Each structure stands twice: as C-alpha cells, then as structure tokens.
Amino acid sequence: MMKIQCFGVARDIAGGPYLTLDQLEGRSVAELRQALLRTYPAFGELVSFAIARNEEYASDEERIEAGDQLVIIPPVAGG
Amino acid sequence: MMKIQCFGVARDIAGGPYLTLDQLEGRSVAELRQALLRTYPAFGELVSFAIARNEEYASDEERIEAGDQLVIIPPVAGG
Amino acid sequence: MADPNDHIDVQLSATALSLQVCRDFVVHPSCGGLCFFEGTIRDLNLGATVTHLEFEAYAPMAVKEMTKIAVAARNDFGLHAVALHHRTGDLAIGETAVIIAVSSVHRKPAFEGCEFIIDELKKTVPIWKREYRADGSHWLNAHP
Amino acid sequence: MADPNDHIDVQLSATALSLQVCRDFVVHPSCGGLCFFEGTIRDLNLGATVTHLEFEAYAPMAVKEMTKIAVAARNDFGLHAVALHHRTGDLAIGETAVIIAVSSVHRKPAFEGCEFIIDELKKTVPIWKREYRADGSHWLNAHP
C-alpha cells in the first residue's frame, strides 16, 4: 500500500489529504493514473491532472519505487 | 526681437538659457529653423532638433505670432 | 556562474508580501531597468462577486518549480537578479498573491523576463486557488 | 469618462521617487494585474564609467507630454490607472530616474501599457540627460 498526497480539488475527490493504492511498486506512472481513474472516477472529470514523484513532474513511463513520494497535481492556479 | 528658450545642448550652443532672433512674427517654424541654423551652425551638428510653440511641438508650417513661447527642443533623453 | 541560484530569491509566504523587499533584492548599479509584476485579488471573476480566495501550495515542489522558472528567466533573458514571492493561505480582495521583480542592464529584457515568469508560474507551479463567493466555493481551473 | 485625466497621476519631481506611492495610486479591487517599471542610473554607459547624471526638463511641456502618454496608455490598453513620476536634477548611480505604475483587470495589457509608456517617454518628453564621467560631461543623444 502506498500513500498518495492530494491537494486542491484532488483532496475533495479523495475525501482527505491522502489516498492509498495497492501494488504500485514497479508499475508505471501511466498505470498509477489508470488505477486512480478506476477507483475515483471523478478524476476523469478534471481538465487534467499530473503526478509528481519525489517533488518533480513524473512522465508516464517512469516506474514507481518503494519509498517514492507520490502527489496528485490537479490543474494549477497560482499567481 | 523674440526670445527663444534653450535647454540641454541647445543652451550650450546658445551660450545661455535664451537666444534672440529678429523679425520672426508671421514667419513659419521652418523659417525659424533656417534662421537658427544660419546664426548658430552648431544646431546643424545635432541628430535633430524640434521647436515647441506654446508648450506643444510645432509643425514646420505653423506661423509664429507675437507673444508665442518658443523653445528649442534638442534630442530628448528622459527615462 | 558559480552558484546556479545566484541572484535568485524565491519565497512562499503565509504572510503579506512586500514590493519594496523584492525591489531591494534586485536593484544593482549595473542595471538601468527594473520591471515588477504584482498580482492582486480581484472582486469580480467571470462576472461573479468574489468574497476571498484561499491559496494552497505543495510547498517543497512549488519552491523548486518557482526556482526553476526564476533561473530560466535570469539565464534566457540575461537578467541580473530575480525575486519571486508567492502567498499561501486566505487572501482578501485587494491583497497581493504574487510579486515578481527583475533587473537588467536594459529595459526590454526586464519586461520580457518578468512576463515570462508570471506566464510560466501559472502553468507549472503546484499552487491552487479556491474561490469563495456568497453562494459557495470551488477550485479554479479544475473542471472544464 | 467625465474627467479625461481620471486615474492619471503625473509628477515631475526634484526629490526622490517612491515605488510605493506609485503602487498605492494605481491599486484597485477591480484589478488583478499591476505592472511597474523603474529606471535607475547605471554605473556604465557604452563601456565608460559614469559618475552621476543631471536631468533637465522643460517642466510645463514635460508634464503635458507625460500626461498625453499616460492618458493614451490608459485608453488604448484599457488600463484602470497610471502613475508616471520622473526626476529632475542631479542623480547618483543607483538612484531612480523614472517610475511607471499601471493597473488593469488582467496582466497582459498591464505589461503592454507599461512598456508603451517608457518607450514613448523616451521619444517625446522634453527631458535631457547630461552624463558626467571622470574626464568631462556631455548631453546624451544630442550628436550622431
């Protein structure tokens, strides 16, 4: 089980600042995105969302490792 | 005799904050410019110079009237 | 440049931002042009009256992304220095959400670099804005 | 607009300019974007070391021309307010010669309007700059 941190609208969708998913280690970020959409279909209603891995935007091909800091980044709105 | 006010490099050329020219009333601004260049050839060495009449840039065709405030405007350098 | 973050001041702050502090960081005798952008909270958005805004940030990554943008602006536009300060928390109408200050020898790169920074910030920095109106609230930009 | 100079603050000043004063003039709850330009005295010009500068203005016409530019910027770029302050007299290296502050609903016109004002000011406002170096002085822009 890995904890994934949620901000902004992602926190509303998850119902809290973290959600958890099973069996992520070794899978790709694309697979994480698919798992999220299956478990929380409301993510599919967003304009888009990105995944941050260890404080950097993660590409779809990256593999998730044990201990990674994973964060869902819904559309940003700074400034 | 009309007094013409001089700023910046025009003051250096005129040797003071004012110069005077005769018989300007009724003449055009273009004629004023020619008279200036005859009397003070150093104005011909400037990048350019404009004439202000009553606190506005004057076109070459405007006629000078008694009581006009005339000012030589060498190349500006604000900011 | 020895330190890649030389002349870069990035801050994420829970308290009021200061234009003067940002200005004093970037001013330098070699620079003739300073350009600043300040983003403030508007009372109207898409025709609706806004009561206040809440800014939430994924702080460590927001600082990293803001620093990347500031360094890119300094290097790509040949700026001398960049200050980039962003607020978090609840902001009232008229309060300041972001201040950008840049300095350069001439003015053109200062304008271009400053505008680049605010444009990029709005695309990549993990900060979110919840808009509160009399009839409820919502996260901006989230839904189509 | 009833008064054609509404929300316009033009000043020609023999004493130090204030970014905060200009900022406070333009800020408004309807505006989300403030852009500022500050022009400061550089220690080097065309490779030569400058000791200080003297600014001379044909004051009544300079104020008229600065006002024309500020009003044109407000009207053409849809700005809310414009402050345009310019120094006269002797200025040391690092001192501020000009400050421009503009506010608008969105940021793009703020950047464009602010840059328009400094570009136009350098073309039309009757202000002259004498540059002092260790070996003498000359009026800038005067000769080819």
Automatic annotation (TrEMBL), chains A, B:
Lineage: superkingdom: Bacteria
InterPro entries in alphabetical order: Beta-grasp_dom_sf, Mopterin_synth/thiamin_S_b, ThiS/MoaD-like
Protein name: MoaD/ThiS family protein
Organism whose genome encodes this protein: Neolewinella litorea
